[in-house]
TrEMBL record:
Protein's name in the database: Uncharacterized protein
Domain of life: Eukaryota
Organism: Manihot esculenta (Cassava)
């Protein structure tokens, strides 16, 4: 055998070996073949139309709403006035009535290095009727602006409700596409579950807080009309000792109020709400979560309170994902997973939504709770009592897409794709919810990934997409 034919034989064996190796190891789910051209993510310039300041003296801007109590009969309305404090009140009335009511709020200001905020108003409107359209007016006295919202149906087990999922939105051109796609999606999300990383102002010199204002104006077109449920991400920390800013979460906590006290929480970073047929628990990846900490003790007491007969769907929001097979932020969620995953399995959480990784991924139902430091059982296993983990950090951000994935795709990863987009979690009744993920490059109605969720309490049969297509 000549040296040339010998080297050819070796090459053949090496290639055969690689093919067989890949065939053995690639037992995971689907890595989408869709490859989005990687372009730099660019923030929209300050004079973009989406950042336009509303006309009129002291006109309210950055209007946004969120749920204001534990069960959906209150709404926190927030807005900013720039010229003077103006009125803290909101005038509101139901569409069935001409009787106008007034709710009184408060305003706050804060400084961040050389930035001074406008007057940030928060007003909690309480004792609203369920399932009712309300009009509301802010800016009483100078320039008024009118908006509306629809309260959720009364909390109950078979109440249909449609949630949107957006994470890591930022204010890039891609962010604008994501928000537009969410607004135009024919499934019509009624409330946004936002999984953290709002404005990315901290990417600018001195965390230029003007970019918090532009973000507030950009998102007003949705957030003034439907509640956005807030989760804190790492870009909300704004810890900047080099410029004298040592109090974490300062811009975020001044600008975005959440009803944390209503669920017995002691800080606005972890809390819960009930909305229609869902019980939503928001956790903080960036607050202490170890044993004995306030967040740990709160969650330990909170999970047994969830009554699946009243709210069948148990949804958890956090920023840093526990199961992530991209080479970005790899294992950052691991320590929180070690602390809380046994509880999620015990209490049969239906789904966990996270952001942080700028891409999309959906897991199988898996758990990794058997490991006890001496038994070596540290591999995720299929577990029908465990949640599905979804990473939806693909809102648009400022830092670009996460395109680099760990290979081969792990068995627990059902679908992954590095594209910008949003998702919809559409609860039909106590047993079924339809989930879909929509990438920005497609038409508004196109579903790039989807799954029927079967409720873990009421209908705990295998709902993996592979089982559903059998
Ligand atoms: Fe993040």
């Amino acid at each position: 055998m000549g040296s040339r034919s010998f080297s050819c034989s070796c090459l053949f064996l090496v290639v055969l070996g690689l093919v067989l190796n890949v065939a053995v190891l690639c037992n995971g789910g689907k890595t989408s073949s869709f490859v989005r051209p990687v372009e730099k993510t660019i923030d929209m310039p300050l004079d973009s139309d989406v950042f336009r300041v509303p006309p009129g003296y002291n006109a309210p801007q950055q209007v946004h709403i969120t749920q204001g109590d534990h069960d959906g009969k209150a709404v926190i309305v927030s807005w900013v006035t720039e010229d003077e404090p103006g009125s803290n009140s909101v005038i509101y009335w139901s569409e069935n009535s001409s009787l106008k009511k007034e709710a009184k709020g408060q305003h706050y200001t804060y400084k961040f290095y050389n930035y001074t905020s406008g007057y940030i108003h928060h007003c909690n409107i309480r004792n609203l009727e369920y399932n009712t359209k309300y009009y509301y007016v802010v800016g009483i006295g100078n320039t008024t602006r009118q908006f509306w919202f629809i309260t959720p149906p009364a909390v109950g087990p078979d109440v249909p409700y449609t949630f949107g999922l957006i994470g890591d939105l930022g204010q890039s051109f891609d962010s604008n596409k994501t928000l537009t796609h969410y607004e135009m999606n024919p499934q019509k999300g009624q409330t946004v579950l936002f999984v953290g990383d709002l404005s990315y102002a901290d990417n600018y010199p001195n965390h230029d807080n003007v970019r918090w204002d532009t973000w507030g104006r950009f998102t007003e077109r949705s957030a003034a009309y439907q509640p956005w449920i807030w989760t804190a991400g790492n870009h909300e920390i704004d810890f900047a000792p080099e410029i004298g800013e040592t109090r974490p979460f300062k811009p975020y906590t001044n600008r975005y109020h959440v009803p944390y006290r209503a669920s017995g929480s002691t800080a606005p970073f972890w809390y819960s709400i009930k909305r229609a047929s869902a019980y939503i628990i928001v956790l903080s990846s960036y607050s202490a979560y170890g044993k004995y900490t306030p967040q740990y003790k709160w969650l330990e007491a909170e999970l047994p309170k969830v009554n699946r007969t009243e709210t069948p769907w148990l949804i958890v929001l956090m920023h840093s994902p526990w199961y992530n097979s991209y080479n970005y932020h790899y294992m950052e969620g691991e320590t929180m997973r070690v602390m809380y995953e046994p509880w999620f399995v015990k209490y049969k959480v239906d789904v966990v939504f996270a952001g942080h990784v700028h891409a999309y991924e959906r897991s199988e139902r898996i758990s990794n709770v058997d490991y006890n430091i001496v038994n070596g059982k540290c591999t995720p296993i299929a577990d029908q009592t465990a949640p599905v983990y979804i990473t939806i950090g693909d809102g648009g951000n400022l830092e670009g897409l996460a395109t680099n994935m760990t290979e081969p795709q792990p068995a627990y990863s059902a679908y992954r794709e590095a594209s910008f987009g949003h998702a919809i979690f559409d609860i039909k009744n106590r047993t079924h919810a339809y989930y879909s993920w929509h990438r920005n490059q497609d038409g508004y109605a196109v579903e790039a990934d989807s799954m029927w969720f079967y409720n873990r309490h009421w209908h705990p049969v295998d709902d993996s997409t592979s089982a559903q297509t059998k």
